[in-house]
Amino acid sequence: MNSQPDSYTRAEIDQLVEEIYRTLESTEERLDRRCDDIYFPMDLTMSSLTSHIEAIQRELVEIQRYIARRPEASASIGRRNNISTNTQMNIDRRLQPKGG
């Protein structure tokens, strides 16, 4: 039979409490993800995905503009790799039937 000590040091108590909180956070995160999956299922329609892509690209443009305005901005950031922001045209081109 495993006997438990009658008293713990402050460090041992802190470690036990930390473990408890870590376990609770992990359990809460799993529960949150599960509830999100149930109550907010992912919308995988093309229009929804297109909207998300366009929103992300607008954010990217804003970030690039912010970086460009900063005097200490590196000349290599955002200029060497020019990313097309014309999402709809790229998506439409991919969805066109081949050979026709």
UniProtKB/TrEMBL annotation:
<feature type="region of interest" description="Disordered">
    <location>
        <begin position="77"/>
        <end position="100"/>
    </location>
</feature>
<feature type="compositionally biased region" description="Polar residues">
    <location>
        <begin position="79"/>
        <end position="90"/>
    </location>
</feature>
<protein>
    <submittedName>
        <fullName>Uncharacterized protein</fullName>
    </submittedName>
</protein>
<feature type="compositionally biased region" description="Basic and acidic residues">
    <location>
        <begin position="91"/>
        <end position="100"/>
    </location>
</feature>
